[in-house]
Amino acid sequence: MLDVIDNEKYRRHREARTSGSSFETLQHEILLPVLLFGSIGAITWAIRGSNGWGGIDGTILPGMTWGLLWYYLCYRKGIDAREIPLWLGLGIAIGGELGYGQYVSWIRGLFNVGDEIIDVAPWIGWVWFVLAGIGWGATGAIALGWALGGKASPERWLFRLVVPAGIAYLGLLTVRESPAWFFPNYGLGIYAVEADEHLGRTVYTNTQNFTVVAWWLGALLVALFQKDRATLTVGLLVGGGFGAGFALGALWCLGYGYAPTYIDWWKMWELNAGFNLGLLYVIALNWSIRQVDNNHDADGRPLADIGGLPEIPDRRRNLSLLLSVYLLLFITFRGVSLTVGGLLGFYDANTVEQYSWPPAREALFLPAAALLTGITILNVWRIVRSSAPAEHRRFGTVRLPERLTDLMAGMTVVGAISIWPAKISVLYALFLCVALFAFNRLNRHYDGIDAPSAG
Asked: CA nearest 427: which of 279, 251, 280, 274?
């Protein structure tokens, strides 16, 4: 739940976004944040698809990074969003287990069966791209909606957990009972060959993707029943929107066969998909800030209580923010250690799996992991032992713009290392330039609003 944490700052920023010109509001509330979230999303989403960051682990990178940017933009406006990074990051990370690789061939009319290729209608590939995109965005969207909805009673949580799981199970049963609806060319009898790698992957991937979409629909149904506007709005926006955004990014894959030496079409798709999802999170961010405005007066005072539920303690919010930063940096260091070891000639990074730990990789990663863990433990101690509310609310805000700049630059370097020496790494630098352009202008805008209170 987003709360006002600095009434004076909130008042100034609310007045600025409601009394300024339409162009200024569009520029600072939509356009510049889209460039920031989209560009950093492109970089981190593309890292997610690189060696060392597959599955849930890799998806933590874009999720936590978006969450930290969300937290920062809210903080500059006097709004507290310390719990958002963890909810958003872990929520979308679950989508990292979903597959979609074979759809690249389907949209080009190619369907692999053993060593042969048969025809498939391209529209089938596009439909599954949409379903896969919904699945990737759904878990993070629903988790974000729950976070924005604030504290919930045990009864509400019971419905949130049980009903979507039940509908997901019904989706799984539907796939098992009517396989011809879900597996292309099923009528040819080819799926009887259980040893075929391509067909086995199709069965597993399509079953998984449809089950997650069913879960998403179940979560939206619960939100509708509980009148949970945040989960319903963000769930539809980010989950449903990324279905279209995922498929749109896949248009790059139609370029396979053209200039493959110079252009990694798969990576182009990942860059585009990350930008598209970043855009959706900006829209969700603006919607959530409007809800804060609707629930508070112009001076930041709440217009109503929170239904008798206890407020979330500052200490817990700080621990949540700290854990988000720790997970992001830990996974980043762990993934890049694989590639760095290969670049230094300790082993062939292409033959070492993500979860393999040759001694050279351990020597690279363990010192960084020990240092990061030690710093995190010290900060946990600071949070736990502090008793002053003001200190809780100032936690992590010292030199925050510089730290986020370092994070964005560091992620870009990691991205370039992860695909070295691919020529497309120049796009990482381009996206970083765009992100810093937007970030600096947003900070200048916020500083201008805060300036009267600085003296």
From this structure: 274
Check: CB of residue 188 under 8 Å from CB of residue 203.
Answer: no
CB atoms within 10 A of CB 406: 11
Residue-by-residue DSSP string for 314-343: HHHHHHHHHHHHHHHHHHHHHHHHHHHHHH
pLDDT tens digit string along 357-368? 999 999 999 999
Name the helix (H) or strand (E) containing 4. Answer: strand 3-4
Please give the model's pTM, rounded to 2 decimal places: 0.92
Query: How many angstroms separate the Cα of 183 from the Cα of each of 187, 247, 427?
Result: 9, 19, 36
Q: Classify residue 177 as exposed, middle or buried by CB count within 10 Å of its CB (0-12, 13-18, 19+).
A: exposed
Q: Hey, which bits of 339-434 come out as E strands?
A: none
Domain boundaries, the chain: 3-454
Distance spanning both ends of the chain, measured CA to CA? 31
Tell me how many degrees the CA angle 161-162-165 measures, rounded to the nearest 5: 90
**Amino acid occupying residue 276:** N
The enclosing H or E element of 113 equals strand 110-113
Pairing of strands 116-119, 110-113: antiparallel
